[in-house]
Fold:
Amino acid sequence: MSFAVARQKGPAAAWDDLRSERNKKRKRGSAFNSKNPSKPKIGTWGRALAELASKLFLAGVVGYLIFAGYNFLISTPRFQIQEVSFQGNQVLSNSEIFDWLGPIQGENLIAIDLASLNQRLSEHPWVQSSSIQRNFPQGLEFELTERVPYARIKKDQIYLMDNFGVILSPERPEYKHLPLIVLQETKEKDLLNGKVLHSLKTMHYFNKLPFFKNNPLDAAELVGHSRVHFITKNRDLQIQMSMDALKEGHKNFMIILDSLEEENLNFKMIDLSFKNQVVIRENFIPSKTLISTKNQTN
Structure:
């Protein structure tokens, strides 16, 4: 008779069996869960919606407070502009600036558009640059730099002009001493292309010479497209030059200057418009406009 003897399993084999059994249970559990997915809990969604609603409500309250606060600031009389000050204006009076800008006092200091206001001020012909700042609770301060008149321009009437060729305003009595440029025809292109400014610079260079110390050039007339006539303050000497050769004409004048000062010549006009030549004449080139400007410069 034979007997089968069962061997007792060791610890390692028993541990392997236990792990195998656990893995089987896990697989059965995951298969069961895939066939029967769990339903989301209603309580979790409710809490999420409640939190979202509370945040939206809080944002709405903050937005309303900001809106209400801003409306209060721009409507309260505490911030209405009452004091307006100007700095840097020498020619323009405060009333002239107010007329240009329009009503300012009574406007709300917070709501007023400073950029737009400054842009409007900078468009004034006399204003070269400007800045504005708020002085709480009811003040506004302007600081501006004015253009400096450089000459007078006679077109339909006499205007003031700065050294950039910008027309500032009709002539003012305190600037009667400035040199006068006469345009035979009302042509803005003579201002834009630099002819007027070149004429003024040439007049300035001439007046630095001792020859013109007691009787400076103070008026000029642009004739045609290429000629300029200068005349002295006493209206007794006229100089003609070509606009295309002002430097050369000035150079030629310097060459004959010693002769003009030494010799007692009876001349009324010096023509520097020819190349490498100076013509001295005893009579004026007819120019009723230049002669009549004597009363306008005195």
About this structure: The longest strand covers residues 127-135. Residues 1-8 have pLDDT under 50 and may be disordered.
